[in-house]
Predict the 3D structure of the following.
Amino acid sequence: MHTHNHFLASQRARFKALWHYRSFVLSMVWREFRGDYLGSLLGSLWAILNPMAMIFIYTVIFSKIMRARLPGVADAMGYGMFICAGVITWGFFSELMGRCPRIFVDHGLLLKEVNFPRTTLPVIVLLSSAFNFVIIFGIFMFFLLAIGRFPGWPVLAFVPLLCIQQAYVLGFGIIMAVVNVFFRDVDHVIKIALQFWFWFTPIVYPVSILPDRVRRLIEINPMTQFITAYQDIILHGKWPDWGVFGLHAAGGLAALILGAWVFHKMSGDMVDEL
Amino acid sequence: MSAQVDVRQVSKQYKRYPSHWARLAEWLTFGLHCMHEDRLALKGVSFQVQKGDSVGIIGQNGAGKSTLLKILTGTAQPTRGRIEIHGRVSALLELGLGFHPSFSGRANAMMTCQMMGLSAEESRRCMPQIAEFSELGDYMEQPMRVYSTGMQVRLAFSAATAVRPEILIVDEALSVGDTYFQHKCIKRIRAFKARGTTLLFVSHDPGAVKSLCERALLLDGGRLLKDGTPDEVLDYYNGLVARRNADEQIRQVESGFGGTSTRSGSGAARIREVEMLADSGHPARAFRVGEHARICCSVAFSTAIQNPTVGFMIRDRMGNDVFGTNTFHLKTGDLHAAPGDLLHVTFRLGLNLGRGTYSLSLAVHSGYTHLEGNCDWWDQCLVFQIIPGKFAFDGIAALPVEARLQVEKKK
């Protein structure tokens, strides 16, 4: 009971410190964004050109020129929109998941010598990946408006769904980040796992084309529910099943608490090991 | 009023695993299968520091200084014990961490300020002052990668000390570039002190502690060995260091060559023992300016030598010859050494040297200089330190000086 209270109290202190360091966090996010394009002539324009190229490839080239079709959806743009809905949101997921294991390792010296709230590091990665996502998602929405396929209000469902998804990732990612300090293998394991995970999630193919046995396997994957919900919003303007995602919200919160608890328990040992 | 820094029974234990697999084994068995060894870096250290005090923390390598420093800074947590710090802490342990080479000096300085917890607005307000103190001029707008190391350090120090902290923790190992800027930094630290900043200064240089602090803590083997005025603590430290060094020398002689000392010569005569004594007769390695010291050595002869000469040379830490002489120049008289003889030589000299670290080299030769008939030449056989005494001066030599004032009144 005592340690539990201690944990809660320190969480409050962590949030306070995080809030105090908000300008540091925002500057770091901005710096990461700027750093990618520093020294290039077009600068931040690349942040827009890259996702535009991606959307162009999936929609125009895949759907129009190669005439790839989605079963059950007759129109030409359907498959492109389907892929984009999955790939863009998966990108948000995998960027955060892929970067999390390295957040403490990469700033080892800083963590050892400078006293600043360590919780800023996952938040910086979260916001920075969110910033990249907002750009690409914004372009995608703009594209849908341009071709007259904007799904309407159900788009708003992206906000809670993505929050729940990233809560899972952040909670799990912090644990991976802590463990990676002690075993650097975690980073490599995650990188390989993400590759398999991508193909075990119905992103470039619909679940319906799979044989029953495989489909059951794929449906265990929690990302399947998220990605399918995104695809349904984009293609059919369908609101997600709130019952399912209400449970996921609780799960995401649990993941975050578990992550915070592991961090709380291990952060002392972690700095000794760095 | 409660102390600004309150350290109570702080211990720090590091876990040391023989391998990564051992750690995995321990983790997987939830600690039941204990694979690690505990290494105590700090053992029940307690002290209080009042607001505005300056405390020097000294100790040799491995005494636990850096561990204590990390705990005071807040980056490491004590395994046992409690630490309370009231007020904003600024720690100068390593400068320029988190600098990004592609961004301008200004952008990086902004980041340093924000990393210390300042808001963007507060950081921006510090910028003119940082630019001025670092004397970087137009370079502030240049990307960091065109900076020299010295410039980086200047910017880092200027940014890290842009706002006066309530508690300043300084690691003396911190190198802040050229001498000019070094003095500027010390001046700033002194100015902070004058305005009420509590200073915690970690150093293995007793002289620096003496000039900056009113109180000193001596750490040894993770324990707080002594807490008192710098003079008291330094005397104690001298004893400790001298004892250690003596041990080390025996080991060095046994192993033939020490880490830094080199020996050469025909071996017709060998220097057996070297010791540096304070006037009290005790071995010492730190002396106050102007203090008398005795250099004692014994030379064993394996061949007969007519009028052997024994000499010494004192060098500063840059390797410049500072002072050297020998028994020939000192006209100690004629002497014939037969095989098996042991010659004891004592030089007594006034160490009128500026503060710093010096090395002592000894040589035995059969001629008048070491160039002819070098029997044994022992470079850097020991290292000693000169710490400030009552006589305040600048430079490498403490020349005897008197001053007289005479005022001529206007008629």
In short: The radius of gyration of chain A is 20 Å. Chain A has a mean pLDDT of 85. Chain A touches chain B through 28 residues (CB under 8 Å).
